Amino acid sequence: MVGSTGYIGKAVVRALVNRGHGVVAFARPCAGVGGTEDEEATRRSLAGADVRFGQATRLDSLLADGGRGESFHAVVCCLASRTGGVADSWRIDHQATVNAIEAARRLGARQFVLLSAICVQKPLLAFQKAKCKAEEELKASGLIWSIVRPTAFFKSLAAQVEPVRQGCPYVMFGDGQQAACTPISEEDLAEYMADCLERPELQNRVLPIGGPGPALTAKQQGELLFSLLQRPPRFLSVPVALFDVVIRVFTALNRLIPGLEDTLEYARIGHYYATESMLVWDSQTNAYCADATPSTGTDTLEDFYKRILGEGLHGQDLGDQLLWNRWRRPQP
Q1: What CA–CA distance (Å, rounded) separates 199 from 197?
Q2: Which residues pair with 289 in a beta bridge?
Q3: Which listed residue, 165, 166, 207, 289, has the most CB atoms within 10 A of its CB?
């Protein structure tokens, strides 16, 4: 298991251990958000797995520190860039993933399950292009492969819960109805990825997947949250055109001042997620289609909101999403 300490990776390790698989979890010596989790904490968070430490960006480390000369039946890869920056995307979403594919081949594995993303259907961003290239190299590897492309994670929709609870409006772009998703929990996605190891019909296939229930727009997500809080909805609409202005400004500045490439990329990422749905793209109708997006599991966004409203965000490390809280303050 590579990428074992991420949000989905930890859940996949739990699912595999619970099914009785012998799991070797490969991790960085300093894992977690901001690299704050030491080796002992990582072992606790991956209970039941044989945790080994090294660097997925180095093939030799994957083989020596992870493989240790042993043979493996399969490799599951949940590697993903933490920042979405250009260089980091190509370093992790592509090169480290390709390293894992080559390590799988050298360690005798027959099967490889890759966590990708549904947004690679329209690859405009660096991390999407890097994932697409890694996907193609996996298909050509000679391994039995499954490429899982999930829609939005619950975690990605959690950042506004606490500010809204404290009295802030729900922030949306435009009218909040330009983009929709069928969000999926980490547990349901992890079980689906574990299924890929065991169900032949999920092998040698690209697998878009969402969670249960209808597709929800940002406005509907906000309305659901206010309903659970038993408050009338209150929204703050941010013009999508703001991203266009920022992108134009940083495009011009990037020509003059080296080093702004990632800042420009973050603006592009913001624009993408404000305007593009995390659903299957229908090339015949030239539109996203909720009905064509497969679903799995039983855990709904409403269930998730209820849990974190009652129990807090324990286990949902938001990382960079905490930026929401840096500029917003409760309003009377």
Answers
A1: 6
A2: 280
A3: 207
